[in-house]
Amino acid sequence: MRFIDEARIRVISGSGGNGIVSFRREKFVPFGGPDGGDGGRGGDVVIVATERRSTLQELRGRSLWKAQNGRPGGGREKTGASGASVEVPVPVGTRVIDDETGRVLADLVEDGQRWVAARGGRPGRGNAAFKSSTNRAPRRATPGQPGEDRWLRLELVLMADAGLVGFPNAGKSTFISRVSAARPRIADYPFTTLVPSLGVVDMGVDGSFVVADLPGLVRGAAEGAGLGHRFLRHVRRTRVLVHLVSLGPDEAEPPATRYRAIREELGAFDASLLERPEIVVLSKRDLVPDEAVAEAAEALRRAADPAVVAVLAASAATGVGMREVVLRTWDLVQGARA
């Protein structure tokens, strides 16, 4: 349940400020000496790992990251201001790779970990720095050094924030195709999803989260039936669960019975999964009357475990109820990240 999310960025650190040549020119100071100050240091470009980001999607819209140049020195031995550094926020788990050589430069695996991607140029020296007993009036100053300019490739092994669970043909693939740009295989028969498919749900300026369309469970999965442990290992890596229960007329068992069956498989594999925040979604609500939807929802609320935050009904085919499901899932994801 992972894929490589990539972004390519150009980082340019600030150049150092120039030193200057200056001499004191003051009344009543007959032997005014050199007082040219040093320049300021150029700003760095720093890549910072943060748990507040889950994808590299934001970086694909901004490829250039440039720090500020240092300011030149001044008279009276005033040092120029240093250039402001720039921080590039990336999700925890991001690898930084030199785009030209392919060499891995950094692996950011902890929240708050920092790595200087482009170091600011060193400042130039003013003529006051060259004053000596043999050279009382130096007319020499040095320029600041240029900053670094390089292209980097960022790679993230991406884990899902929300995992879609349920029996085969519960509508998980249609759901993820509706809320993200993911396009998994969709067909009107079970087991169309054989490997996890991930999609990024864009929440606008608030951020984004990753949802995984996981292969359908069957009874006995905890003992290895169907995709068995291979599927349940994927579920273990999600922050929250979105449990889809189909309202399709061809279902042989009531929704509450199928809900309990999936919960039993999760608990048999790993009891901690039963404590994970969960939303239950009655899918395919467009295929049954509103009365049947209300009846199924009430039955599920009575059967639901304490970890279930809400029981909702939606149709990925028509879009009815989908916005509420996405917003409730986003609230759960934000809480799980905190």
Question: What does this protein structure show overall?
Answer:
- A hairpin with a 5-residue loop joins strand 10 (197-202) and strand 11.
- With 338 residues, this protein is an alpha/beta fold.
- The strands form 3 sheets. The protein has a 6-stranded mixed β-sheet with strand order 10-11-9-12-13-14, sandwiched between helices.
- It has helices at 172-179, 228-236, 255-269, 290-303, 322-337, and strands at residues 3-12, 45-50, 64-66, 86-91, 94-98, 104-108, 114-118, 149-158, 162-165, 197-202, 208-213, 240-246, 278-283, 308-313.
- It starts with a strand and ends with a helix.
- Supply the number of structural domains: 2
Over the alpha carbons, how many angstroms does the gyration radius reach?
A: 30 Å
Strand arrangement in the largest pleated sheet = 10-11-9-12-13-14
Q: What is the succession of H and E elements?
A: EEEEEEEEEHEEHEHEHEH
The CATH architecture of the largest domain: 3-Layer(aba) Sandwich
How many strands, what sense, and barrel or not for the largest sheet?
A: 6 strands, mixed
Q: Strand content of the residues, in percent?
A: 25-35%
Gross morphology is: rod-shaped
Estimate the mean pLDDT confidence: 83
Q: What's the CATH topology name of the largest domain?
A: Rossmann fold
Number of helices: 5
Number of strands: 14
**What is the CATH class designation of the largest domain?**
Alpha Beta
- The SS-based structural class is alpha/beta
Helix content: 10-25%
